[in-house]
Design goal:
single chain; mainly alpha
């Protein structure tokens, strides 16, 4: 009689372990799905994502070329040598490419900023609207 009671206890414990294992595997699968989804990172770490977006935008948007401030003597010398308008500083293709990169970069930054702002508003709106567990604000 004692052996059948022990066997039943072992079977019951094995069934509990199987159920726990199934729940753990499901939790791991859901965690892996969350890790693949970029929205999870934005939801959990909005300020880090916004900083990363700003850094990427800063690196992608081309810098303005430094303006030259030549002296009057240098301009006169260039005019004498007829080299003042000999070669353009930026080709039309370069201008179009720069304009395209700036436009796309600005659109990306605006989109990311709007999304992060929207998510931050939702996140902070939920925090301020939900009461604490004690029922006290």
């Amino acid at each position: 009689m004692n052996h059948s009671h022990e066997a039943n206890a072992i079977r019951q414990r094995m069934e509990e372990v199987r159920c726990d294992l199934d729940r753990d595997v499901q939790g791991i699968i859901e965690g892996a799905r969350d890790m693949r989804d970029w929205r999870t990172y934005v939801r959990n770490y909005p300020w880090v994502c916004m900083g990363a977006a700003v850094a990427v935008g800063y690196l992608l948007v081309p810098r303005r070329p430094a303006a030259m401030q030549p002296s009057a003597e240098a301009i006169a010398e260039l005019v004498k040598q007829s080299r003042l308008a000999e070669t353009p500083l930026v080709t039309p293709v370069g201008k179009a490419r720069d304009l395209l990169f700036r436009s796309v970069g600005n659109l990306v930054i605006q989109g990311v900023s709007a999304y992060v702002g929207q998510q931050a508003g939702k996140h902070f709106g939920k925090q301020s609207a939900s009461p604490t567990q004690d029922g006290q604000p």
